[in-house]
Amino acid sequence: METNKFKAALAAGETQIGCWVGLADAYAAEIAGEAGFDWLLIDGEHAPNDIRSISAQIAALGRSGSHPVVRLPVGETWLIKQAMDIGAQTLLIPMVESGAQAAELARAMRYPPEGIRGMGAALARASRFGGIAGYATKANAEACLLVQVETVAGLEALDAILAVEGVDGVFIGPADLSADMGFPGQLDAPEVLAAIKDALGRIRAAGKAAGILSGNEAQVRDWMAQGANFAAVGIDVVLLAQGLRTLAAKFR
Question: How far, in Å, are 120, 128, 130, 146 from residue 124 at the CA level?
């Protein structure tokens, strides 16, 4: 049974540096895996991924030191089951707005009696196709649930979400939060920054891991100083696009 070192590091309060992987390609994911990040986010919400492409990217990261975190488009029980069975140990679920919703997600990720995950591990890549003895009795301990709070309603329910057993961390989504607060595209609006700072402090005070994403180095370092301990510092699609544009511009 593979130990979830990412979950263990977060529980120990260690800072984990990551990057968004949105190219939806196993070869590209493998390249990112050789870069040295602690974790990589395989994006199923805004990237053109499906369960097969996500599975291929998890496999591609198998020999790297980067832990795959899978963001699903929605927190549906059946989709969580599929993601866990293809080998994901850590899930990031968007748009969580209540403690009850978070509790349902935690149960969906875990086998009975703690949860409701279907007992089909013998078919699953996660169990090495039945090769891990007692997989279903060991998997719950390595499951890591990260929930995204990215709306005003989510912030209002943050304390209830943090009280849910089985929620390992809360990721603040600055872009959606700023839009929901009435400041679309204005991540640096004072009201947005104040809300993020307050949320990061409450998350860490509750003993949970706090996450954030920014491609702005100064901003992400400031959020890390405020308590964010799993931070994504870039997006592969953006890095590739910027690099190509810069190169092309040099010869224009």
Answer: 7, 7, 7, 22
Which one is catalytic: 2, 35, 46, 129? 46
User: What does the alpha-carbon distance between residue 41 and residue 51 come to, in Å, rounded to a whole number?
Assistant: 14
Predicted confidence (pLDDT) per residue in 72-108, tens digit: 999 999 999 999 999 999 999 999 999 999 999 999 9
List, in order, residues 6 or more apart from 58 with CB less than 8 Å away.
42, 68, 70, 86, 87, 88, 125
Distance from CA of residue 223 to its chain's centroid? 17
Cα–Cα separations (whole angstroms), residue 107 to 120, 123, 144, 220: 16, 21, 12, 32
Sign for the CA dihedral angle at 118, 122, 128, 134 comes to: positive
Residue with tokens 């050789």: 34
Burial of 190 from C-beta contacts in 10 A (0-12 / 13-18 / 19+): exposed
Which residues does residue 40 pair with via DSSP β-bridges, in sequence order? 19, 68
- Is 46 known to be catalytic? yes
Report the distance separating Cα 210 and Cα 196, nearest Å: 11
Q: Which parts of the chain are beta strand (E)?
A: 16-21, 39-43, 67-71, 90-93, 144-149, 169-172, 209-213, 230-235
Q: What's the confidence (pLDDT) of residue 43?
A: 98
